[in-house]
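Morning - adenosine-5'-triphosphate inputs below, output right after.
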Amino acid sequence: MTAAAQFIDVTRTFGDFTAVGSLNLDIPEGRITTLLGPSGCGKTTTLRMLAGYTAPSSGTIRIAGKDATRLPPEKRNLGMVFQSYALFPHMSVADNVGYGLKLRKIPAAERRSRVAEALDLVGLGHLAAQRPRKLSGGQQQRVALARAIAIRPSLLLLDEPLSNLDARLRVQMRAEIRRIQAETGLTVVLVTHDQDEALEMSDVMVLMRAGHVMQSGSPAEVFPRPANRFVAEFLGYENFVPAGPAASDGATTLTVRPEHLEIVQGEAPDGARLALPATVTGIAYRGVDRHLTLAAPRVKGEGEGDVTLIATVRADHSRADWRPGDQVTVAARPEHVVELAD
Ligand SMILES: Nc1ncnc2c1ncn2[C@@H]1O[C@H](COP(=O)(O)OP(=O)(O)OP(=O)(O)O)[C@@H](O)[C@H]1O
């Protein structure tokens, strides 16, 4: 894959504090890359360095193969959309979208056709003459996208673009941005702290923590195989069991998703990788599923107290429901058990 942009050993410090440390990252051309992680992990600083608003303390940033480390933002040919759309209230939608083209001194006729094309792409051609304040949040978001796309940027940078939208619209806009990316072939870098958004939208997701990349890859690579406990927890894994002597080198913890735990009475099924005696401590009914909480005593030498486990099981009408106090075996097949380093 060709890299549209590259971070080569990029560090950014603020005083003694390292916001981004020795970052090496390729942004593949014509794909959506998301920077994902909790608040303060350095996502925005990384995006701002790519945009040219924050200079790296050391290291090199290349855009389209050229050293862009010291290039000012306006020379990088980037489109940006922020959380706040920053539309000009006194201008029509069309003038908002055409603003960057005017700055670039694109002749009026071409400007008109590129504005129309960008508005069609986001499905707002019919609102060209409106003022932004007459539009819904979702429509304003699309205007901001159209404005960023109209300049035909070599990179489209989106910083938490969906976080001001209500939940339903947010989910719609995920698919919408994917469609726009597929139709234009743009290279997109998206910052988010929402793992569902990243899983749905990314070609490549980059998980960050405290200024460092913890893991990167496609959602299909990362989600089933989190590299460490931080990534697993961030992606919503809940069950963490001491790995014990049978684990590979370096693995200290095993994890299994709630829907992959099997609850049985008596012996674990043949070939199970994990088999723990446990007591049912709680049960919640959620439509066709049952959410069980269980307590499994630790093996001697692996710490104090019980390990709490969460299992999602399908209702089985051939038998009575599990009840608090039931003694069971919690089991998982080898293909569902992920070994984690700390
Ligand atoms: N101009 C600055 N001066 C001092 N510290 C800064 C500055 N900008 C960012 N930081 C610090 O760098 C760290 C990373 O910030 P950054 O905004 O990149 O994180 P983030 O992952 O985008 O978080 P959020 O989702 O909250 O925006 C934070 O601890 C922040 O306080």
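Note: The helical segments are 43-51, 93-103, 108-121, 137-150, 167-184, 195-201, 219-222, 229-234.

O.
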